[in-house]
Write a structure and sequence with these properties.
single chain, alpha+beta, Beta-Lactamase, six-stranded antiparallel beta sheet, 32% helix, globular
Length: 179
């Protein structure tokens, strides 16, 4: 677990952002589409970890909008320092009995990076999922996921609080005189 982790502070930060149960965001949808493309995984999501649920702000290849937190792989990711990768969930003691592993979703592979607020709270994860076991992601794909996670943070943090700037007309320049 990251140093200084506090579940109550993490939840306060998540609630400060006021993003749970908001409408889809095309920018965030594009991030999960890109994560799926880069890694070749059929599923990619931006999940936010609430007190008792995992809510998907953006998703690619998954119909669910939320799950119980106790089943959320991403709830484990937010407790990791940098990333979480599960090559075969059916053989991982943390997930072998998980209904997403044993049930119709048939999760086998998971790779996720925390989404960290500007104040350092791990509020969720950007992750990719596959129904087959996979080899570890190459570092180039991890870089893409980390970059995507930072883009999610920027969109959540600064998109909400962005103050529209007044339009200032461009300085007029006198027309050029033909010589």
């Amino acid at each position: 677990m990251p140093r200084g982790y506090s579940e109550s502070k993490r939840l306060s930060e998540l609630y400060r952002l006021d993003i749970l149960d908001t409408d889809p965001d095309p920018y965030l949808d594009a991030i999960v589409d890109e994560a799926a493309d880069v890694t070749g995984c059929p599923v990619a999501v931006i999940s936010l970890i609430d007190r008792s649920r995992q809510w998907f702000k953006a998703r690619h290849g998954l119909e669910l909008c939320q799950t119980r937190r106790e089943y959320a792989f991403c709830a484990h990711t937010i407790r990791e320092r940098h990333r979480l990768e599960v090559l075969n969930a059916a053989q991982d003691p943390r997930f072998a009995d998980n209904p997403f592993v044993t049930g119709r979703l048939h999760v086998r592979y998971y790779a996720g990076v925390p989404i960290v607020s500007r104040y350092g709270a791990r509020i969720g994860a950007l992750c990719v999922i596959d129904r087959i076991c996979r080899d570890p992601l190459p570092e180039s794909q991890w870089r893409c996921l980390r970059s995507g996670s930072r883009a999610v943070t920027a969109a959540i943090e600064f998109g909400k609080y962005r103050v529209p700037l007044p339009l200032i007309p461009a300085p007029s320049t006198p027309p050029r005189q033909e010589a």
